[in-house]
Amino acid sequence: MDKVIRVVGLTKQFELHQLNKKITACYDINFSLEEGQFLGITGKSGSGKSTILRCIYRTYLTRTGQIWYKSGAYGLIDLAQASERQIIHLRQKEVGYVSQFLNVMPRITARELVELAVLEMGYDLNYAKKEAIQMLAHFELDKELWDMYPNTFSGGEKLRLNIARAMVKKTRLLLLDEPTASLDNESKKRVKEVLEKLKAQGTTMLGIFHDLEFMEGICDKQFNMQAGKLVA
Amino acid sequence: MSNPEEPVLVVKNLRKQFGSGCTNCLDLKEESLEGNYCPVCQTVYACRDISLELYPGEILGVVGESGSGKSTLMRCLYFDEAVTAGQGYIKDYKDGQKNIFTETSQQKRYIRNHVLGMVYQNPYQGLRMGFSSIGNIAEKLIAAGNRNVGYMTDRAAGLLEKVNIPIYRMLEAPGKFSGGMQQRVQIAKALSNNPPILFLDEVTTGLDLSVQAAVLDLIKIIQRELAISMLVVSHDLSVIRMLSERTIVMLGGKIIEQGLTDQILEDPQHPYTQQLVQSLL
Ligand SMILES: Nc1ncnc2c1ncn2[C@@H]1O[C@H](COP(=O)(O)OP(=O)(O)OP(=O)(O)O)[C@@H](O)[C@H]1O
Ligand SMILES: Nc1ncnc2c1ncn2[C@@H]1O[C@H](COP(=O)(O)OP(=O)(O)OP(=O)(O)O)[C@@H](O)[C@H]1O
Ligand SMILES: [Mg+2]
Ligand SMILES: [Mg+2]
Ligand SMILES: [Zn+2]
Any chain A CB within 8 A of the CB of B279? Predict the structure, then answer.
């Protein structure tokens, strides 16, 4: 089977000029995933888990190693080397990222936010509206909040909105950086339902989760990070 | 497989110097200059071989400290200043085949009036404070060849409404407006000829936070609805973070770093950018 993503010798070092310090956040990471596979990553705080996802998403620059991704638009492409415009395109259409933090324009309503995510995929407004409503309802975001600005939402409401926005796109590749860390159990179950659905539809996922139970049944591979290195 | 995108604006090695240069600074070597300045002949190299590409519908951010050359870059691109050297190509002008900097002044005026819009750091540069707001916009429309007064009034009113200038104030001169309102009139004026490219120089600097937010919203709405490509200059990283997906960092007239905006913020490479980001957090 074709690999959707293949990471080869990924090493990430931060050079902090003011402190005259170098930090190696992850070292010689290698793995690959096929379509629809789910890789769970665990490890202690500071072990380099987020760094891997952020290198794939290109929030961090990779100077050593390759991140081969089988793109719909560009074919096989090294995300470490791709142009910025290519990355922007992939972020719109193919690669999603969910973290614990909602980072959005302050004055855009919850409903618009989710609609925009669908529109970015190239769908029309009617479809976007329909999908947005479904997702907001699925994550049980109170209807009264749909047309409000998220900056007044509670932490959990923001989180659920954030997840809805990322998952509504049904991207080929989805990166999950502890999206459920501070959610209640009911919300976690809802997230898991969507993940199962996405997986069945062929979305390839890399997820960092604190609680292993949560990943049971979806995880095809599991890696543990220790001091910047992957150990199986 | 998707086609490679074509930029709407390509700038290659844009240089702007104030002063004639001397044998010390001729080759622009780092060791012969103090920042952008030649201590021997006092020449200022405000833009040192700037190259960039602006893509359809994108907002490209330009950040850098005071004096780094941001406004000079914009003024060169809008022909307010003549470049010392370099090339510029615009897709909507002669199919991007002609270097705009070597065109005649008449052709440059054409480009300015039909293809470009500019919002100046200082509203006094962009507006005639004695004219009415409608008159300011009409001036730009006339420059672009419009003669129909009815159309121009409608268009001006429509644009001013879009930027939230109340109808009953449209005949007032912007000299009486607040800073935020003046910037919004400038934006309306810049949009009047439907330019594919818009330059925005420190549009929110000096405005109250709530007014800043309204102007930033407006820019985002313009991007979404009109798909105009914009070059947005600011010394304020939080403005850039809100608006742009890609960012260029300037220091002493040079581009020292460029990348995706989140990458510039989360994983800055250059010591100066690291310092800039630190000061934001
Ligand atoms: N942008 C950055 N600049 C400098 N150092 C960084 C940066 N991001 C991460 N690091 C460092 O890299 C190491 C790994 O960080 P990372 O965020 O990948 O850990 P993590 O496993 O995700 O931890 P946690 O479970 O706490 O989220 C840490 O020592 C961290 O300080
Ligand atoms: N007409 C001029 N004659 C001589 N030097 C000039 C002239 N215009 C600008 N400069 C110099 O060029 C350099 C760049 O100035 P510029 O206005 O482009 O900076 P900027 O990045 O826009 O700064 P700010 O954030 O303060 O607006 C500065 O050193 C400035 O003193
Ligand atoms: Mg982490
Ligand atoms: Mg300036
Ligand atoms: Zn000199």
Answer: no
**C-alpha span between A2 and A5 (Å, rounded):** 9
Tell me the domain boundaries of chain B: 9-279
Alpha helix locations (H) across chain B?
A: 70-77, 105-114, 123-126, 133-143, 149-162, 179-191, 209-226, 237-243, 261-266, 271-280
Burial class of residue B122 (count of CB atoms within 10 Å of its CB; 0-12, 13-18, 19+): middle
ipTM: 0.92
* Residue ranges lining ligand 1, Cβ < 6 Å: A 14, 23, 25, 43, 45-51; B 266-267
* Tokens encoding A160: 């659920």
Distance between CA atoms of residues B68 and B116, nearest Å? 23
- CATH (residue range A35-61+91-231): 3.40.50.300
CATH class given for the domain over B9-279: alpha beta
What is the radius of gyration, based on Cα positions, of chain B? Answer: 19
Q: What tokens does B183 get? A: 């910037």
Crossing angle between the packed helical segments A155-167 and A185-200, to the nearest 10 degrees: 10
Q: Is B137 exposed, middle or buried (0-12, 13-18, 19+ CB in 10 A)?
A: buried
* Tokens, residue A122: 């190239």
The whole-angstrom separation of Cα B92 and Cα A145 is: 43
Residue B34 gets which letter from DSSP?
B
Instruction: From chain A, pick out residues whose CB is under 8 angstroms from the CB of B256.
Output: none
A77-126, pLDDT tens digit by residue? 999 999 999 999 999 999 999 987 766 666 789 999 999 999 999 899 99
Mutation pick from B246, B260, B273, B278 vs chain A, by most beta carbons of A within 10 Å, is B260
| Domains of chain A by residue range | 35-61+91-231
**Residue B267 contacts A where some CB pair is shorter than 8 Å:** yes
Residue B44 DSSP SS3? strand
Question: Are the C-beta atoms of A210 and A43 separated by less than 8 Å?
Answer: no
Run of H or E residues at B256: strand B254-260
Return d(Cα B65, Cα B122) in angstroms, integer. Answer: 17
**B212 neighbors B203 (Cβ within 8 angstroms):** no
- Cα B150 from chain centroid (whole Å): 30
Q: Which of A32, A37, A11, A7 is nearest to A22 (CA)?
A: A11
Contacts of residue A17 in chain B, CB cutoff 8 Å? 270-271, 274
- The CA-atom distances, in angstroms, between A224 and each of A29, A35, A212, A228 are 12, 21, 11, 10
Of the pLDDT bands very low, low, confident and very high (cuts 50, 70, 90), residue B1 is: very low
Give tens-digit pLDDT for A131-144: 999 999 998 888 99
